[in-house]
TrEMBL record:
Organism name: Fundidesulfovibrio magnetotacticus
Protein name as it appears in the record: Protease HtpX
Protein's gene: htpX_2
Residues of the active site: E277, D358
Ranges of residues in domain CAAX prenyl protease 1 N-terminal: 34-203
GO biological process, any: CAAX-box protein processing
Transmembrane regions: 68-86, 149-167, 173-198, 290-312, 324-345
Length: 422
């Protein structure tokens, strides 16, 4: 690498982003409080609270080591002629520009995945296991990564090939064509992922008949909300942590509950969780989030096209023949600070949506108390950090911290209760 000013600017952007992320994690650990917050007393024990802090510290240390190692490997690759060597190897194997680009970027992605593999294994089989979360077997761990690799090659490869071809052949309109392709691809994934992709990793079974299913279906019907089904996902296959999520669009909307969630919540609390998810749909959050993501994609691709015209930058990193794929790799590095800022803005919008969905769920039959109790149960099951630092919240949290959500729910008052409830 030739230390020109543009090259140093790219490296500075990358290092700044990593340093800010590391600072947020360090401050997060430093902000831990020894006193169990009052709203969680009676649900959390002092011992569980202490365990959550040890879990946070262990996870943070691993995360910092993971990111530091990745950054060191990347800087070594850039400074020791890796760009020139890998570009030459890709061109030797695939003479065409699109093929060489796929080989170049695919090799980088594969190298990153392999370098991250020991950290992923340590996270699952040491850190998560130490705190009682991990239930992943070595077979599941390996199969997950092989399936992920297969999807990346088939789906990611096809999408990347289309983007490379557009930038290679369409001149100044390339970013618009690439934007259209990525948007269409994202829309198709929204439709097919629940039935074609997610089942590759987990088993989804209809929730058995009983009080819980009846309560969920009754609430959805009362709201006039058509559900394709209520499913139980075998989350216990990998972890004891609990969650629920909403997928699908149009008439194919479905709610999926982790099997680890069912024994931690009452039917009333699960209805509150469903009400929260229905709130996202009723308030247009899913649609708005899709279009905001689409606009971000368009901005990214438009800036990428401008960046590709930055003369001399690729040569500064050792590329003997400027290309679309090397330019896109360098853009991905230079883009990091702006991506972090846009991510923080996106998270702020997401947190606002979560507050609105909580307010919607507060009107469910169980009132705000049902959702509050559900959030308390989830935070305990997952040993959530109850006092995250504001910088980390701004940069990474798509949901408000649990104490904020509980405070806002308490402001709604006791709310409606089902007939005959205590």
């Amino acid at each position: 690498m030739t230390p020109t000013l543009p090259a140093l600017a790219v490296l500075a952007a990358l290092i700044f982003t990593e340093a800010l992320s590391a600072l947020a994690r360090w401050l997060n650990v430093r902000s831990l409080s020894l006193e169990l917050p009052a709203p969680l007393r009676g649900i959390w024990s002092e011992e569980a609270y202490a365990r959550s802090q040890r879990y946070l510290a262990a996870s943070t240390r691993l995360g910092l080591a993971r990111e530091g190692f990745s950054l060191a490997c990347l800087l070594a690759f850039l400074s020791c002629g890796g760009v020139c060597w890998l570009d030459g190897a890709a061109r030797a194997a695939f003479p065409g520009e699109v093929g060489a680009g796929l080989a170049f970027l695919g090799a980088l992605a594969l190298a990153q995945a392999l370098l991250d593999l020991p950290f992923a294994a340590w996270s699952a089989f040491v850190v998560e296991a130490r705190f009682g979360f991990n239930t992943t077997t070595a077979r599941t761990f390996v199969l997950d990564r092989l399936k992920g690799l297969g999807l990346a090659v088939i789906l990611g490869g096809a999408l990347l090939a289309a983007v490379l071809w557009a930038f290679q052949t369409l001149g100044g309109m390339a970013w618009l064509a690439a934007w259209a392709v990525v948007t269409a691809f994202s829309g198709v994934l929204l439709v097919v992922a629940p039935t074609w992709i997610l089942p590759l990793f987990n088993r989804f079974e209809p929730l058995p008949q009983g009080d819980t299913r009846q309560a969920l279906e009754d609430y959805a019907r009362d709201e006039g909300f058509a559900l394709d089904g209520v499913f139980v996902m075998d989350g216990s296959k990998r972890s004891t942590k609990a969650n629920a999520f909403f997928t699908g669009v149009g008439k194919r909307k479905r709610i999926s509950l982790y099997d680890t969630l069912l024994d931690k919540m009452t039917p009333e609390q699960l209805v509150a969780v469903l009400a929260h998810e229905i709130g996202h749909s009723r308030l247009g959050h899913i649609r708005t989030g899709f279009w905001l993501g689409t606009l971000r994609t368009g901005l990214t691709l438009g800036l990428a096209q401008l960046f590709l015209g930055w003369g001399g930058l690729q040569e500064a990193f050792g590329a003997t023949r400027p290309s679309i794929h090397v330019g896109l790799m360098l853009f991905a590095l230079a883009w990091q600070p702006l991506a972090l800022g846009l991510g923080a803005l996106s998270n702020a919008v997401s947190r606002r949506f979560e507050r609105q969905a909580d307010a919607f769920a507060a009107r469910a039959p169980g009132g705000p108390q049902a959702l509050a109790e559900a959030l308390k149960a989830l935070s305990l099951a997952n040993l959530s950090n109850l006092t995250p630092h504001p910088l980390l919240v701004a940069l990474e949290y798509s949901h408000p911290p649990v104490l904020e959500r509980l405070r806002l729910l308490a402001a709604h008052g006791p709310g409606p209760r089902p007939s005959g409830a205590a």
